[in-house]
Design goal:
Rossmann fold; five-stranded antiparallel beta sheet; 22% strand; 557 residues; 16 helices; nine-stranded mixed beta sheet; globular; alpha/beta; 3 domains
Length: 557
């Protein structure tokens, strides 16, 4: 089994002159070849070793997705340091906790984050070094190692050595340091590369935060070790994503459902504003695409039908998107499949490096999260009469454990199997189907299990719902952040002068009653709550569900 050190060295030489990283700065795209990337990482590692850093030292990385972030990470992998990427959306109290808990010696922090850490330095007695992750100026990042010429021999690294500590922000509110080894990450990235067929010619747009396991492995390490190009998007804003896609000929992108929902809503909004004749033309195109898909199941079989639309959206070079982090509503996937750009849905957890399964793009499926990756074994623990139970897994990608938490490690790692806390089943084709998180399950008065995520997938199809969270004890309650633009359009069509909460709830009740028909009686929403602002989310755009468990926010019915 190779290590990340082996792979960084190998690809830095094999793809020396090929572009590895690029970012838009000062009005132009700035790029780094694989040779430059390796050279910078080696020099930075030597700089730290000159300060006395040894194998096993913890080094923090706190900032936006940039080449500099990637250089620090590679330097750690080459020297056997343990990288501790930190969520840039955390407050300073949480950042201080991670720095202290991980026994971090040094940290590279960007801009505002540098100032925040510097201001709290007294609370972190073990932290010796703080460096600004800023490429500009005399005291910038590159000045640290620009005079380095000779690179000493690298330390020996064992595949079982820890590579990163990833602190889960998640939706539960509890932070734990997940220990992932070189073996964990290498086995996972190689399996992902095989399933998704990532090629050197690919250009992957990086939009999700690099500190997260999903982007870190699937969106960063996998393309790097495929010899591909990574383009860093300035933000998650739809306009920035579209701009980068159009300008750099992006071929693939890893995202979360909310990103694709925003894209879907943007396209639908643009279509709704077209003149009647052009709107009718678009309708005809979709009808043509549906007819073709009856016979053509190929990856991009209908892409040519929508060429002008795809060019306007910046999607003309996209082969497929990859979705993870949460359940993707099937109607979103079906829509993009009609456009000729399938969304490949995957499943995993930070503790599994993270990907456990993914749909094969050669066998598109809208409802499952695909078959397990190569080397991953999956079984269902304690299934009910329908075959639904807890998903448990094993393989080389399973974490070493939680840092300083042997008790919590023992709760989820049993005889080599990792207990995910997710409920689901395996269908006749060997595909994993997710029902929801064990902790989120609502038990009805009749003893039936109700999975909130399943209901949310249906409710979000309502055009008047922007975001929804289903909670409850005996029955489902929907907490809704409305789509105010659609609400106002409806009010105008019905000559409603004042759109207040009562009128919005009346409309939502009517729409939800129709959607309830798609659900079993005990799963039907019986109560709604309005929110007047978006739900608080993690850095990967998942709603912080724990903030609403057992509690409602907004105006109740």
């Amino acid at each position: 089994m190779k290590t990340l050190q082996d792979l960084f060295l190998q690809n830095g030489k094999s793809f020396e002159n090929r572009k590895a990283l690029q970012i838009f700065r000062d009005g132009a795209y700035q790029s780094y070849t694989y040779g430059q990337y390796l050279d910078y990482a080696l020099k930075l590692g030597f700089f730290l070793r000159g300060l006395g850093y040894e194998k096993g030292e913890k080094v923090g990385i706190l900032g936006n997705n940039t080449p500099e972030w990637a250089i620090v990470y590679a330097a750690c992998m080459l020297q056997g340091f343990i990288a501790v990427p930190i969520d840039r959306l955390l407050g300073i109290r949480e950042i201080v906790h991670i720095i202290n808990d991980s026994d971090m010696r040094g940290i590279f922090a960007e801009g505002k984050f540098y100032e925040d850490v510097a201001g709290a330095k007294k609370e972190m007695p073990a932290l010796k070094d703080l460096y600004e992750l800023n490429p500009m100026g005399e005291a910038g990042f590159y000045s640290l190692f620009e005079k380095t010429r000779e690179i000493p021999p690298l330390p020996d690294i064992d595949p079982e050595d820890p590579a990163v500590f990833l602190y889960t922000s998640g939706t539960t509110g509890k932070t734990k340091g997940v220990i992932l080894t070189h073996k964990n990450l290498v086995s996972n990235l190689l399996a992902i590369r095989e399933r998704l067929q990532i090629q050197p010619e690919d250009n992957l747009l990086s939009i999700l935060p690099l500190h997260h396991a999903y982007e870190g492995t699937a969106g960063f390490l996998t393309p790097i070790f495929s010899g591909s190009l990574i383009t860093f998007s300035p933000s998650l804003a739809n306009r920035d994503i579209v701009k980068a896609m159009a300008e750099t000929r992006v071929t693939k992108m890893v995202g979360v459902p909310l990103v694709f929902e925003k894209m879907y809503n943007s396209i639908q909004s643009n279509i709704s504003k077209l003149p009647p004749v052009r709107k009718a033309l678009v309708k005809t195109l979709f009808l043509t695409a549906r007819l073709r898909r009856l016979f053509d199941k190929s990856l991009n079989g209908t892409k040519g039908i929508f060429k002008p639309l795809l060019e306007k959206a910046g999607f003309q070079n996209i082969d497929f998107f990859v979705a993870g982090g949460a359940a993707l509503p099937p109607y979103i996937n079906k829509f993009f499949f009609l456009l000729g750009i399938p969304i490949i849905q995957g499943y995993g957890l930070t503790e599994t490096s993270p990907v456990l399964s993914a749909v094969d793009f050669r066998d598109i499926d809208f409802y499952s999260v695909g078959r397990p990756l190569e080397g991953v074994k999956v079984r269902i623990y304690n299934p009910d009469e329908t075959g639904v139970g807890e998903i448990v897994v094993r393989g080389d990608n399973i974490m070493k454990g939680y840092y300083k938490e042997p008790g919590k490690t023992a709760e989820v790692l049993k005889q080599g199997w990792f207990y995910t806390g997710d409920y689901g089943f395996i269908d006749k084709k060997g595909r994993i189907n997710i029902k929801g998180r064990l902790k989120n399950v609502i038990v009805s008065s009749g003893g039936k299990n109700i999975y909130p995520e399943e209901i949310e997938e249906i409710l979000v199809q309502c055009p008047y719902i922007e975001e929804v969270l289903v909670v409850g004890q005996d029955y489902p309650e929907a907490i809704i952040f409305p789509n105010y633009e659609k609400m106002e359009e409806w009010a105008g069509e019905h000559n409603i002068k004042e759109l207040d909460d009562e009128k919005m709830k009346e409309l939502l009740k009517h729409e939800i009653e129709k959607l309830n028909n798609h659900l079993a009686q005990y799963k039907r929403v019986r109560k709604i709550t309005l929110r007047h602002e978006e739900f608080p989310k993690t850095s990967t755009r998942k709603i912080k569900r724990y903030l609403f468990m057992g509690d409602s926010a907004g105006s109740e019915e």
